[in-house]
């Protein structure tokens, strides 16, 4: 419980500082999936689910307060769909990151690679679930279609690739490297104490 409490505190601190959400040049880049992935790996999938909820709740709060112009626009269009994009997607990401980590750990003889794979999947799944739900809920809205028009009226798959290209190039390697190193170090420290 103490470790989960600390991870929730990390998420909350990150969410209210530039460490968690970067809003720049029209892009919303988040590193909030890193502590969710770390928690899912060192505590377990249920912790990933809970931490994913906290991440999603802070994202929904950004939409409510207008801290993210993109999320605020989604909120203006449909608050329920915005909720679906923000919260269940992050919960599923946290839980699945923990499950993938446990699966890979069983076959990882080095007991190291699994942490980097878990870190990568935290960001990858966050992107896949967020964008998937965004397309399901908002693809036919004027808001998304106007963005798509600026990208050249792409099909949904190419739209996702263009829309998250820069984000993915920043988020996935960061989550893989930082999440992998921190998770491995924390896991070692926890096992030494036992």
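-> sequence recovered:
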């Amino acid at each position: 419980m103490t470790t989960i409490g600390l991870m929730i505190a990390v998420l909350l601190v990150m969410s209210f500082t530039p460490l968690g959400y970067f809003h720049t040049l029209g892009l919303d880049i988040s590193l909030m999936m890193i502590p969710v992935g770390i928690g899912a790996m060192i505590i377990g999938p249920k912790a990933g689910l809970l931490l994913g909820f906290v991440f999603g709740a802070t994202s929904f709060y950004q939409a409510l307060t207008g801290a993210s112009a993109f999320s605020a626009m989604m909120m203006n269009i449909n608050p329920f769909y915005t909720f679906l994009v923000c919260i269940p997607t992050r919960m599923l990401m946290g839980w699945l990151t923990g499950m993938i980590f446990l699966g890979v750990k069983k076959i990882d003889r080095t007991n190291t690679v699994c942490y980097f794979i878990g870190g990568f999947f935290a960001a990858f799944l966050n992107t896949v679930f967020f964008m998937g739900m965004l397309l399901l809920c908002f693809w036919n809205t004027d808001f998304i279609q106007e963005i798509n028009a600026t990208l050249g009226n792409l099909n949904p798959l190419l739209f996702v690739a263009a829309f998250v290209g820069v984000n993915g190039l920043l988020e996935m390697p960061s989550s893989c490297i930082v999440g992998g190193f921190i998770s491995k170090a924390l896991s070692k420290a926890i096992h030494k104490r036992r």
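The chain is about 80% helix and 5% strand.
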